[in-house]
Amino acid sequence: MKILINALSGNGDALMFSPALRALKEKIPSAEIDMLVMFRSVKEMYENNPFLNNIFYVNFLKQSKLKSLSEVRKISNNKYDYSINVYPANRSEYNILNALLGAKTKIAHHYSHTNFGRLEFMNDVLINEVKDRHNVLQNFDLISTIENIGELKDEEAGKMEIFISDNQKHDAEIFIRNINTDNNLLVGFHPGSSLLKNHIHKRWDKIKYAETGNRLMKDYNAKILLFGNEFDLNNEINLMMNNKAVIASTDNFMDSIARMKHCGLFISNDTAFMHSAAALDIPAAGIFAYTNARELYPWKTKNVVVRKELSCSPCFYNSPKPATCIFQGAEEFKCIKTIEVNEVMEAAVRLIG
């Protein structure tokens, strides 16, 4: 059996397919499983995964449509039995691509917020999206439709997984030894976020991140590691901490992951780094704005979700539409603006234990 996984979203969403990938290989050991991605960082994240045979990287966003179509046609020559659009993938382009790949059975979700123009009918099997169901389990629902899988129970969904190479581990250990000679508690921050779909508004205030870092350094003698490719933002926060933090990320996603593994606590907006912390079994404080924490909390790791219980939140759902707010002016996106340092510190203290 040949199966293609279309993990076309960013690292966080792609990572939440990893428990389904393991289950798929365990249920059908003889299956040949390939993955198609369109972000290099997703390729880096999955290239050491033992359950995949091949990873195809197609730069849909930056190369010509003609070149992309040519590469898709080459992939389709593998004659897959199944192709799966990883959840969430609520765009017409993803459904067109799934059709072009030409698998015998094309599997995707039927979304709660959709329309005819999303072209869901181009797939053969549609799984209903379930509100408040974690993304990991939404992906489990996708693979349950494959022949020979049988009934899957939610309890069978294991942890998310990132496989770090020995070289990456070695380089990270050298980095950590050099920056943490006193063996302090390492606390990772990810104060950034994607800019796609207006998600800059998921970011907690940089001044509050700096204050949280200063308090953790004072109260716990912690060493703060700043992650993410938002280098200007991280440098600005570091300056507010008297340059006592460390810029821990590089341009390679797996460098960051290997270094993250040494953290005893991770504080982050709702981003791929928060989910990566969960995959590495790091206690995580997830700061949530308008996205649904019930669907996106740090999966199967010790965690505290920090959010405001507003009547309007969560208001963001899986669709091509960007994040918007019903409020204006100073009230706009108050779901993130009104979260205070004390609330995040309380979460940190609980997780440090």
Would you mind describing this structure in some detail?
The protein has 353 residues and is α/β, with parallel strands linked by helices. Helix content is 36%, strand content 15%. The protein is built from 14 helices and 12 strands. Strands 3-2-1-4-5-6 form a 6-stranded parallel sheet, with helices on both faces. A 6-stranded parallel sheet has the order 9-8-7-10-11-12, sandwiched between helices. Strand 10 (265-269), helix 11 (272-279) and strand 11 form a beta-alpha-beta unit.
Entry summary:
It is built from 14 helices and twelve strands. It has about 350 residues and is an alpha/beta fold.
List keywords for this structure.
353 residues; alpha/beta; six-stranded parallel sheet; 14 helices; 36% helix
Number of strands: 12
SSE order, as H and E?
EHHEHEHEHEEHHEHEHEHEHEHEHH
Query: Which term fits the overall shape?
Result: globular
Number of helices: 14
Mean pLDDT across all amino acids: 97
Strand order of the largest sheet: 3-2-1-4-5-6
Largest sheet: 6 strands, parallel
The first-to-last residue Cα distance is 47 Å
Radius of gyration: 20 Å
| Beta-strand percentage range | 15-25%
> How much helical structure, as a percent, in the residues?
25-40%
- SS-based structural class? alpha/beta
Low-confidence stretches: none
